[in-house]
Amino acid sequence: MTFWDILLIIISVLLIVIIMLQESKEDAANAFTGEKSALFANKKERGIEVWIARITTGLAVAFLVLAFVVCFFVQHSAR
Q: I want to staple 49 with a disulfide (CB 3.0 to 4.6 A). Which of 33, 45, 56, 72 is the partner?
């Protein structure tokens, strides 16, 4: 395992944890009954929700970039 692989695993675990910390914006019962959803309603995030959303976005971008970097290194080391 290289440094990049370990870093990708750490980012993956952090991304999973931060997603689990987020509040659900949807009632699960409404998803199965077909009731009108307020999922896309204009709800402004406040306080800690803003920070969690920003951290989630940053970790998701870092995960995507690291996945491409690891893929690049795997392809070039196979040659």
A: 45
Q: What residues have CB less than 8 Å from 30, skipping those under 6 apart?
A: 36, 37
pTM assigned to the model:
0.70
Given a contact cutoff of 8 angstroms between Cβ atoms, the answer to whether 56 and 19 are in contact is yes
Residue 67, amino acid:
A
The answer to whether 19 touches 60, Cβ cutoff 8 Å, is no
Distances (CA, A) of 75 to 62, 64, 79: 20, 17, 7
Q: What is the pLDDT of residues 42-74, one digit of tens each?
A: 666 678 888 999 999 999 999 999 999 888 888
- CA torsion sign for 22, 25, 30, 31 is negative
Domains identified in the chain, total number: 1
- CA 65/CA 4 separation, integer angstroms: 11
**What range defines the domain where residue 79 resides?**
50-79
